[in-house]
Amino acid sequence: MTTGDAVARLVREEGPRVLATLIRVTGNIELAEDVMQDAVVRALETWPRDGVPGNPRGWLLVTARHRAIDLVRRRARGTAKEAEAMAMTDPPPEPVEVVRDDLLRLVFTCCHPALSLEAQVALALRTLGGLSTAEVARALLVPEATMAKRLTRAKRKIVQARIPYRVPAADELPARLAGVAATIYLIFNEGYAAGAGADLVRTALTVEAVRLARLLAELMPDEPTVLGLLALLLLQNSRRGARLDADGRPVLLADQDRGRWNAVEIREGVERVGQALRRTPDRPDAYVVQAAIAACHALAPSPAATNWDAVVSWYDVLLTVQDTSVIRLNRAVAVAERDGPAAGLTLVDAISGLTAYPWWHATRAELLLRLGRGEEAREAYGQALAAGMSEPQARHLRDRLATC
Amino acid sequence: MPTYIALTYTADVDWTRPEYAEETKEYIAFGQAAADVLRGGHALYPTATATTVRVPDGKGGEVVTSDGPYTETKEALTGFYLLECADLDEAVAVAAKIPAAWNGTVEIRPVITF
């Protein structure tokens, strides 16, 4: 790695923290980004030549602050706003916990419910993830000009509508934290769904999401939602190497080569589930429970050796916090594995409202096939295919249909 | 402190008619409860009283007035409040207590002070 690369990486790692403090100090996210950009350019110019300063974060902050003071003074010459600039010359306190709180405030600002979900995702990647506008645009399959406009509009709204830069009070925290988690989960799914052959920037969204979840876990180490989210992302990501075959077709969980699952991510994911469960009050968090289910799969050496009893129990818990037909369907699948296809089919048939959902038909078909009811299975496969799905998924169902 | 306007969109109603007296009382109660941050506001006559004014030929040109607008949507602009709040979160908390929030929609916009 060249010095330039090392400097670029260091700048990217420190960037969000410095930016978070700058936003607090200047009270203006756009100004903070502008002066941060200037400081980054200067760092990339001078550090490779003169060496990295002893306190890179402090260097970036001081350089950006000087620039901000310059700018505000120039804009506010002769007006009362000069006081604002003067207030900024006081050196900001920089102990670890202040920087931590600044970052946390930035997290909640970027994921404020008054911003559209797409704006939240873009802002999180840009300001918290430190990606460039071009990278965010490519990752989300949006033209760069559109993304630049989206980011500008979101930042303007933060400034003009005064979206506060603070950590929500205890009574609003659960709802707001759920919003932050949903944004990070959405980023993960964007990358996860991109599949093989997609732009690397796009698939790297899973890595970004894990990074953001990890950052959040560092900032709020006692929140079960946060620990559960991180665990769930790690456990889902651990299957990355096994979930597509050589032709890029999805491989079912049961057929995946478990030797290709990432053991390091599984170990950490399982550990995080444990931490989350120990901190879980009477009402469990949906992310924690989903992570617990993922952990049951991750820990099983083979599909047959899966602890289906535990999986079914976790689905029972999940239904107490989030009762949806799709979760009922997933539970029925686990029951079929534990008690046989007949028991599973009874439960699947009892779920209403999923006739437009291809996986309800596909699950019925699979269970009918296992029960030797070929004709009914064929019919159900046909209904699943008619309900519509992606081509690789349809190919898998057609293969199954051929065995009926 | 920034000022926000809270625009209430509800079914197109005539607040002067007796059948809306109960609902009007709810708005008055809100006004009293939010007196600290309220900087003005009014209920509006129904959209049937609205007139649209345009000067299509440019400044100084002929004035064209027309009846309406009537929109196809179920919700019409029926009133507004001016709120002086510290930030958007506070404005949202106040707006959530306006009866229109459960009878329709409340739109909050920051007001520019030149």
From TrEMBL, chain A:
Residues 108-158 form the RNA polymerase sigma factor 70 region 4 type domain. SUPFAM superfamilies: Sigma2 domain of RNA polymerase sigma factors, Sigma3 and sigma4 domains of RNA polymerase sigma factors. Belongs to the sigma-70 factor family. ECF subfamily. It comes from the Bacteria. Coiled coil: none annotated. The keyword Transcription applies. Transmembrane segments: none annotated. Keywords: Sigma factor, Transcription, Transcription regulation. The keyword Transcription regulation applies. GO terms for biological process: DNA-templated transcription initiation. Pfam families: DUF6596, Sigma70_r2, Sigma70_r4_2. Residues 10-77 form the RNA polymerase sigma-70 region domain. This is Sigma-70 family RNA polymerase sigma factor. GO terms for molecular function: DNA binding; sigma factor activity. Residues 176-276 form the DUF6596 domain.
From TrEMBL, chain B:
SUPFAM superfamilies: Dimeric alpha+beta barrel. It comes from the Bacteria. InterPro entries: Dimeric_a/b-barrel, YCII. Residues 36-114 form the YCII-related domain. Pfam families: YCII. Belongs to the YciI family. This is YCII-related domain-containing protein. It comes from Microbispora oryzae.
